[in-house]
Amino acid sequence: MSSNHGFKKLALAVSPTAQAVETATELRSSHDWVAMEAADALVVLGGDGFMLQTLHAMLDSGKTLPTYGINRGTVGFLMNRYRAKAKLLEKVNRSRSIGISPLRMEATTQDGKSQVEYAINEVSLLRETRQTAKMEVSVDERVRIRELVGDGVLVATPAGSTAYNLSANGPILPLDSELLALTPISPFRPRRWRGAILPDRSTMRFKVHEPDKRPVAAVADQKEVRDIADVRVEIARDRELTLLFDPGHSLDERIVAEQFMV
Q: CA–CA separation, 41 vs 64, rounded Å?
């Protein structure tokens, strides 16, 4: 449902592309903007890539704001349509809130170092060389596949299920499904395994076999950790993000519509 959020102070984040910069010039003359530290909500001008970059910057800073995207990119799956001369503050206040919990990836490298990153779309494990990757796949501390052989594997959120996951022939998940997609990437063995749909309370673990001969990288959206030995993935419920969508143009509707694209 849409509602009046009562936002009064908006901050603005702008992609460096020409289209976004031009739109920002128009918006700056029609609204009084504040710094993010003083804002109630954030307006993002750009495409999906810049939106993900902005959301990750907020996650890294520890301060997250409800975020309203305006598409000045290409696809704009996470964005709202741009309407010139619209009363922006009123639109943002009438928008619908969608909560998104990112994935938490804890990757341990071959030399024993541990690194934590967060992913809004997906965590993917990918072979680094021409050699196929080999890894053990566990769900909730139970080994499900002793050895997965292929280019890799990924874990996708519902918000990310229409991105890399879909390209890898993974399922599209409704936003309110409380599910995760576990999808192999060009699997060779087990030959007939096409992935799994799991409750989002699940914890997944991947152990790399023969890491010296078959090195694997772990990627949380755009952040890469190379030469991994072990990766643990689960939902980070303490890092929930809030996206704002115009009524009738919400993310869950777009996810449903994507399944009828031909």
A: 9
pTM of the model: 0.86
Distance CA 145, CA 111 (A): 25
Q: Which residue from 222, 240, 234 is spatially nearest to 59, judged by alpha carbons?
A: 240
Q: Which of 32, 48, 140, 246 is catalytic?
A: 48
Chain center to CA of 228? 21
Cβ contacts of residue 99 below 8 Å, gap of 6+? 240, 241, 242
Structure confidence by residue, pLDDT tens digits, 160-174: 998 899 999 999 998
pLDDT in tens, 175-211: 888 999 999 999 999 988 999 999 999 999 999 999 9
Question: Is 221 part of the annotated catalytic residue set?
Answer: no
The secondary structure of the chain, three-state, reads CCCCCCCCCEEEEECCCHHHHHHHHHHHCCCCECCHHHCCEEEEEECHHHHHHHHHHHHHHCCCCCEEEEECCCCCCCCECCCCCCCHHHHHHHCEEEEECCEEEEEEECCCCEEEEEECCEEEEEECCCCCEEEEEEECCEEEEEEEEEEEEEEECCCCCCCHHHHCCCCCCCCCCCEEEEEEEEEEECCCCCCEEEECCCCEEEEECCCCCCCEEEEECCEEECCEEEEEEEECHHHCEEEEECCCCCHHHHHHHHCCCC
